[in-house]
Write a structure and sequence with these properties.
Distance between the termini: 79 Å
Oligomer: single chain
Strand order of the largest sheet: 7-10-11-9-8
Helix content: 40-55%
Number of helices: 8
Number of strands: 11
Mean pLDDT: 80
Structural class: alpha+beta
Order of helices and strands: HEEHHHEHHEEEEHEEEEH
Shape: elongated
Largest sheet: 5 strands, mixed
């Protein structure tokens, strides 16, 4: 009698949206329970921002206003996390996005509850203290929650393997000029930038303005790379930000390129994450796993950009390279 073998469910069958939303719901419930259980002992207004040194209160907010703001942030972040987890293309970064959501929800929930407990029983909100070492405790709680989220999310999907493309040419008549352009965006990077922006505003308003500004700077560094336009023309390959059009993320003129091909790119397997990545002997703008242009440079390194219709872009770039070489040989 043969024993039945259990097979794990497909990765895209996992309830990732539910898993992603869960920590924000849990944090919202915890905050609401703590608030309503001690609301009769809370001063009006609450001490919600604490300065340096002895961490004495230097910012105040109405109790209901504070509760509304925190619950709204948790609702917005939870909605964004749930929508991203429902993307039709299972991404290798989705489990890590979920882990980040768990960490953020835990940090907001824990810090909010500690702020409410610190205010409980105070007759004068200006006398409320919140020791700065509790930020370290908050960080530890966030790390543990992130680890739990990563465990619940399960293994990341691997991109389907496919043989690397060759070095094709485009059948372009002599003297004819053509151009190719596509846009590529990354919802997870948009989410990360949004989370950094929201967390930065939260810290700036209620906790520590220096930490808040640091997160806001991080958001400004992340968001410009969340979407890009990739262009191939007679000048070479250009990658520019669609959010800041004057900003060129990378430009490779023809005299720096030896060959272009296309192949599937595994974001986490090859580069360890989304965004503009630098590895030994290679760099690239990788906003998702899947088809991408691989440009071999004259210094032996590679530049990669993930984008749809990469084969056409590589073929056109090779065609312009052939023309440039023919002109040099004929000179």
């Amino acid at each position: 009698m043969k024993s039945a073998q259990r097979s794990s469910p497909p990765l895209n069958a996992r309830p990732w949206a539910l898993i992603a939303v869960l920590p924000f719901v849990a944090a919202a419930v915890a905050v609401a329970v703590v608030y309503f259980s001690i609301s009769a002992r809370l001063p009006e207004p609450l001490a919600t921002h604490f300065g340096e040194g002895a961490a004495r209160a230097d910012g105040f907010t109405s109790a209901r206003g504070f509760l509304t703001l925190v619950l709204t942030l948790l609702l917005v972040f939870g909605t964004v996390a749930g929508l991203l987890a429902r993307l039709p293309e299972p991404s290798a970064g989705t489990p890590w996005l979920i882990a980040g959501g768990y960490a953020l929800a835990a940090a907001i929930g824990f810090l909010t509850c500690r702020t409410l407990f610190a205010n409980a029983g105070a007759t004068d909100a200006s006398a409320v203290r919140l020791p700065l070492w509790e930020l370290a405790v908050t960080l530890a709680v966030a790390v543990l929650a992130g680890a739990l989220g990563r465990l619940l999310a399960g293994p990341a999907p691997r991109p389907a393997g496919r043989a690397a493309g060759g070095a094709p040419r485009l059948d372009l008549p002599a003297g004819a000029v053509a151009g190719w352009s596509r846009t590529i965006g990354s919802p997870p990077i948009v989410a990360l930038g949004t989370l950094l922006l929201g967390a930065g505003l939260f810290l700036l308003a209620f906790i520590d303005w220096q930490a808040g500004i640091g997160l806001l700077i991080g958001a400004l560094a992340v968001l410009p790379c969340a979407a890009a336009r990739v262009t191939v023309d007679r000048r070479g390959l250009t990658v520019s930000s669609t959010l800041l059009p004057p900003l060129r993320i990378r430009h490779l003129p023809l005299d720096r390129v030896t060959e272009a091909t296309s192949r599937p790119i595994g974001v986490f397997q090859e580069f360890g994450g989304w965004g503009y990545r630098i590895r030994s002997g290679r760099s690239g703008l990788v906003l998702r796993s899947g088809e991408g242009i691989v440009v071999r440079l004259t210094d032996g390194k590679e530049f990669v950009v993930t984008v749809d219709d990469a084969a056409t872009a590589a073929a056109l770039l090779n065609t312009y390279l052939d023309r440039a070489r023919s002109r040099k040989e004929g000179a």
